[in-house]
Amino acid sequence: MPANGKPILVALVDDYDVVLIGLAHMFDRYRDRIVVAEIDANQATNDAVDIVLYDSFAQPESDHDEIRVLIRNPRARRVVLYTRTQAVLWGVRHGFTPDHNRIEHCRGGPCR
After folding, report:
1. What string of DSSP letters covers 62-92?
2. Long-range contact list for 59-63, CB < 8 A, 24+ apart?
3. Could you please report the per-residue DSSP string of 19-58?
4. Residue 54 forms beta bridges with which residues?
5. All domains of the chain, ordered by start, with CATH?
6. Are 45 and 11 a contacting pair, CB within 8 Å?
7. d(CA 18, CA 33)
8. Whole-structure pTM over 0.70, yes or no?
9. Cβ-Cβ contacts under 8 Å for 55 (sequence gap 6 or more)
10. Burial 38-62 (b: 16+ CB within 10 A, else e)
11. pLDDT higher at 4 or 21
């Protein structure tokens, strides 16, 4: 629990509904500490939140503008970026066949 005794308000931003739903359910058992205040698929954050969790996996080449909008949003105190790129690269090394264009784009490290 945060020092002020109130749960952390989180907004989830991702291109895929299935990821949004999964993330939201991941926090279910922490409802006393974390409240998912907003779930957005490609929309601006409308509610005042402590943290915006933004998945940069789906379209890394166009994320810069979206990230800039999130960071400048006065209703978002903090923006946290995450990606599943490392999981995809691990899968490639272990026999999975993903979208090779995306893999080559991200092979050198975090997608830019």
Report:
1. GHHHHHHHHHH-TTEEEEEEE--HHHHHHHH
2. 59/15, 60/102, 60/105, 60/106, 60/111, 60/112, 61/105, 61/111, 63/111
3. HHHHHHHHTGGGTTTEEEEEEESS----S-EEEEEEE-SS
4. 13, 81
5. 8-83 (3.40.50)
6. yes
7. 23
8. no
9. 13, 14, 15, 16, 19, 82, 83, 84
10. bbbeeeebeeebbbbbbbbbeebee
11. 21
Cβ neighbors of 88 (< 8 A, separation 6 or more) are 96, 98, 102, 103, 106
Mean pLDDT of the chain: 76
In tens, the pLDDT along 7-17 reads: 999 999 887 88
